[in-house]
């Protein structure tokens, strides 16, 4: 699965808004080129685009997020907010227990579903360069994260189309 294929799969889901971080949208320079996927079917904007349900990160964030060694050629990381229950079913421990299990994972391994090296405590999972070993699971996890975002969506009165 290429970065573009994954981005297309997520972007084509109904109600998804995709933002690619860059100078033109005021994103911090360290995030430029990374993709953020939000569920915002009413195009209400900022209120529903504070927390993405999925991201694709293409490089390390020095001093903050380097455990995946994303600066290798062709390496990117898909990140998904799957919720506490799904996270716990995947790994056998809760997000709150991640610190006790963190050393059990090689966050640089490709094609394997892992806790997110930084945001696992917020119920995020990650996969470096999803491939044949993780593709079916990744497709299901994308849908899990998307469905969770849909359930959590709250329209904001006055911000929808035709109200501005």
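^ Assign residues to that structure.
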């Amino acid at each position: 699965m290429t970065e573009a294929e994954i981005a297309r799969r997520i972007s084509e889901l109904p109600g998804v808004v995709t933002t690619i971080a860059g100078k033109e949208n005021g994103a911090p320079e360290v995030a430029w080129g990374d993709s953020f996927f939000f569920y915002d079917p009413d195009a209400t904007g900022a209120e529903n685009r504070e927390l993405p349900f999925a991201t694709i990160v293409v490089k390390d964030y020095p001093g903050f997020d380097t455990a995946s060694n994303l600066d290798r050629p062709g390496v990117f990381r898909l990140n998904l907010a799957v919720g506490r229950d799904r996270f716990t079913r995947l790994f056998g421990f809760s997000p709150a227990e991640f610190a006790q299990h963190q050393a059990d994972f090689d966050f640089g391994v490709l094609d394997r579903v892992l806790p997110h090296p930084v945001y696992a405590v917020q119920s995020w999972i990650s996969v470096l360069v999803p491939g044949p070993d993780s593709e079916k699971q990744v497709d299901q996890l994308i849908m899990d994260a998307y469905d969770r975002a849909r359930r959590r969506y709250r329209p904001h009165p006055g911000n929808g189309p035709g109200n501005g």
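The first strand starts at residue 16 and ends at 20.
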